[in-house]
Amino acid sequence: MLELRGITxxxxxxxxxxxxxxxxxxxxRESEFAAILGPSGxxxxxxxxxIGGLDDYSSGDLKINEVSTKRYRDKDWxxxxxxxxxxxxxxxxxxxxxxxxxxxxxxxxxxxxSKREATRRARKALEDVGLKEHTDKKPAQLSGGQMQRVAIxxxxxxxxxxxxxxxxxxxxxxxxxIQIMDxxxxxxxxxxxxxxxxxxxxxxxxxxxxxxxxxxxxTSDSDPYDGKRKTNLNTExxxxxxxxxxxxxxxxxxxxxxxxxxxxxxxxxxxxxxxIGIIGIALILAVSSGFQAYIDQVQEDTLTxxxxxxxxxxxxxxxxxxxxxxxEDSIKDGKxxxxxxxxxxxxxxxxxxxxxxxxxxxxxxxxxKDDVRxxxxxxxxxxxIYSVDATGKLAQLNPNNMFSSVLGGSQLISSxxxxxxxxxxxxxxxxxxxxxxxxxxxxxxxxxxLSQEGKIGxxxxxxxxLHDTDELNTIISKLMAGETVEVKNEPLVLTYEDIMNxxxxxxxxxxxxxxxxxxxxxxxxxxxxxxxxxxxxxxxxLKIVGVTTPRDSLMSLSGVAYLPELVTHIIEKxxxxxxxxxxxxxxxxxxxxxxxxxxxxxGYDFSLQDLxxxxxxxxxxxxxxxxxxxxxxxxxxxxxxxxxxxITADTSPVYD
Length: 656
Ligand code: ADP
Ligand code: MG
What we know:
The protein is α/β, with parallel strands linked by helices. It has 3 domains: 2-262, Rossmann fold (3-Layer(aba) Sandwich), CATH 3.40.50.300; 384-585, no CATH class; 601-656, no CATH class. It has 28 helices and 24 strands. The strands form 6 sheets. Strands 13, 14, 15, 16, 17, 18, 21 and 22 form an 8-stranded mixed β-sheet that branches. A 6-stranded mixed β-sheet has the order 6-7-8-3-9-10, with helices on both faces. Strands 2-1-4-5 form a 4-stranded antiparallel β-sheet, covered by helices on one side. Mean pLDDT is 77; it is low at 230-293, 299-306, 408-413 and 600-608.
């Protein structure tokens, strides 16, 4: 899980370059107790600080979970230090005027959890190191060994994967040292513990692996590790394993939305959301489980920083959080107090004057540009993208409805599962490495973004039409009905050419609705195959001009990136259409259904098709050829249903 490759460290002192580490190669296991032994000045502390991200290396590479840290940015290092690493030093570094409990809790201040939860975790960590009875004492009232235990509890309270200890027993007598070593030995059963020491006896007795360092080089390693798994799965086994994980992905999606809101379901959904970069799901979950859980999930599960977004409408989350975090103990007065999370959240929704603010930012750009990396406008306009899928049928790829059977097919949800995303040109240059082709230059050009390993996820291949686009929904529906499903797609292998040859076409919403002069309404033509095929044939192509991979290991975008120019283009073009103009001229009337907005009674509460009967004999005599009467009747009903559906849509539309 941790791999050092040719790590060197030089210090420049005056004019001289001092080589402290001269090419260190080590691979650590997920859990082991490794002791680094060596004389004073051999570079042990320097090495440990590099492993913990406290110091940078001069050359070589440190790989964390097989990912190189060469391109780590500050935020990646922060995430690594804050969530993966715990430090214990020779000097305990405790704050003298704070209690033991407060010292441990301090390590949790940045993690965003509530005070109550922080207290609970700190008590648990102190109990784990055998200090249950001493939580309210000040450090000075403890022995050296006890103070070091406090430091260990503090390092463990964030539940890191790796514990780094620099001469933890350096200031302790031998009896106390043994207790600390016992504790570290216990911890190393579940975590990677790397301890620097100059005491070979202690290392020998307690550590599972001894690495000796001399003059900046490794001179021995008692239990080297090559980074490979102990058992090599043969290919058949590997294939079965892969199959299994694929199935569990689909099973996860097969849970109903209600199930997803249970704790286990939520974990799966957040994992799913994180894996395809749709952290917005967490916001939806927040409504059901409270904002505290939202903060926890975002902090613990994603660790990635997201841009500051200013929306047209926003809720004052801060006040809700503060209200929720207050330490007030209402148990004291023996009464149950209502915690008004929902009403205060809903009550704090405000409208922002985005237009003026946008204008203001542009006007004062000179003054703010040093503090802002990039300013990006987002409109709630999603390009409508169609393609011919693997089965040869016309398919709407974006906004997608491939998960409609589990997620209800709402526009909101589909925007979170979409792999088509807007990306500023400047950001593309910074974030993407071009593997083939080039980056887009204009509105009708896009790039495909692969994973960092250059792979293409199956969510993306589905949304590029490389499989049967109905398949996901079919599978999920079956799973929800309790049937078992075998997913037997062979994994695709594609060339960059193949990807750039995928034909995506841009459709405009205005073209999808066709004017019906008889009823003075606009019909949704999406279910009319012939109409859509013609529209598709004449539509303009969105050219995939390049294949790229993200530079940043923590960036989870993988999909299709388009320029903001595409959205502006769609907006401009739409403004020029008949239906939009007509709507703008008649703000009272919903031009789709030719009814007044907001009039509840304007929606019909009967079904049009119930009023119509089809006289099959009349049809037969009119057409005078041998026809399937039932089929005609069914088609006619379908057509009426379609029109009546447009008029009597059950969500009430608004002018905005
Ligand atoms: P150890 O922990 O094994 O005693 P260190 O890693 O602390 O050794 O130090 C190794 C060498 O690097 C020492 O010679 C020390 O003087 C030197 N060194 C450590 N930090 C710096 C620094 N910031 N600038 C210059 N030299 C340093
Ligand atoms: Mg040292």
